[in-house]
């Protein structure tokens, strides 16, 4: 049972408890590094299958997220981060469907909030570097084209929304989708077994619950991709907003 949290702690090193999601983070980072290193290490004018796969994966994030959202002038410097972010999240989400692991790393809230905190530091640092601290706070907190009479109401709301709430909603979206999808799989799988053991109408409802579990498994594959894409897309939007000259 992947929700038996007594088994999540794999071993202890001194006072540090090494958990299953922690190991998955390391494996996920290693998988992304090895894939792109292998794809780029023997680059040639006529790409082989691995090089083509790496270039296609890189190009998808580079063009559809980096260039289209941040803009052609500034996007290149952020592409390595966005590509790494997307595939790191995607691999860790895919662990939910991988036999033997079957645990989405970001169904642990702490993991999702740590990733969102990193994103928060990056896009705020980008904005402060370009506009200065006071200029960036003004950009994010003072909406343009609004009467100063409205500032006492709007400025605190804009500051709260743009500076404080973004990392919370960013992490919560990823965590909630991964946790809820995995919980549904557990519910229908164990529920089907219970109904079969109950007998009677359970002989019909039990297999039906397992069919729904299989259907949700395929739906989860789509959700895993979409959540990685949305998280990366929002990061690009926040970076774009931090670089903009007008809010």
Molecular structure report:
The protein has 247 residues and is mainly α. It contains seven helices and two strands, in the order ββααααααα. Strands 1-2 form a two-stranded antiparallel ribbon. A hairpin with a 2-residue loop joins strand 1 (9-13) and strand 2.
Offer a concise description of the structure:
With 247 residues, this protein is mainly alpha-helical.
Overview features:
two-stranded antiparallel sheet, mainly alpha, 7 helices
Task: Present the secondary structure layout.
Layout (H helix, E strand, L loop, with lengths): L8 E5 L2 E4 H22 L7 H22 L8 H16 L14 H23 L1 H9 L9 H48 L3 H42 L4
Antiparallel strand pairs: 1-2
Helix pairs in contact: 1-2, 1-3, 2-3, 2-7, 3-7, 4-5, 4-6, 4-7, 6-7
Name the poorly predicted regions: 1-7
Q: Percentage of helical residues?
A: over 70%
Mean pLDDT: 85
Major β-sheet annotation:
2 strands, antiparallel
Rounded to the nearest angstrom, the distance between the terminal CA atoms is 48 Å
Main sheet strand line-up:
1-2
Q: What is the H/E string? A: EEHHHHHHH
DSSP summary: helix tally: 7
Shape from CA axes? globular
Radius of gyration: 22 Å
Q: How many beta-strand runs?
A: 2
Q: Which band does the percent of strand residues land in? A: under 5%
């Amino acid at each position: 049972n992947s929700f038996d949290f007594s088994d999540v702690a794999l071993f202890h090193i001194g006072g540090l408890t090494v958990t299953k999601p922690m190991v998955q983070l390391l494996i996920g980072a290693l998988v992304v590094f090895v894939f792109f290193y292998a794809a780029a290490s023997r680059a040639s004018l006529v790409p082989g299958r691995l090089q083509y796969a790496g270039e296609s994966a890189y190009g998808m994030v580079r063009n559809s997220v980096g260039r289209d959202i941040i803009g052609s002038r500034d996007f290149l410097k952020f592409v390595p981060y966005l590509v790494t972010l997307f595939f790191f999240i995607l691999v860790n989400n895919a662990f939910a469907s991988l036999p033997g692991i079957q645990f989405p790393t970001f169904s642990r809230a702490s993991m999702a909030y740590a990733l969102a905190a990193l994103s928060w530091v990056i896009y705020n640092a980008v904005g402060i570097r370009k506009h200065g601290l006071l200029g960036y706070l003004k950009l994010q907190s003072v909406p343009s084209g609004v009467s100063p009479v409205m500032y006492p109401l709007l400025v605190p709301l804009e500051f709260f929304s743009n500076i404080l709430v973004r990392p919370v909603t960013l992490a919560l979206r990823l965590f909630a989708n991964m946790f809820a999808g995995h919980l549904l799989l557990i519910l229908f799988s164990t529920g089907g077994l219970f109904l079969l053991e109950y007998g009677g109408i359970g002989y019909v409802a039990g297999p039906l619950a397992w069919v729904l579990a299989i259907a949700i498994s395929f739906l989860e594959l789509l959700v895993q991709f979409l959540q990685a894409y949305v998280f990366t897309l929002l990061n690009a939007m926040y970076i774009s907003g931090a670089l903009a000259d007008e809010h």
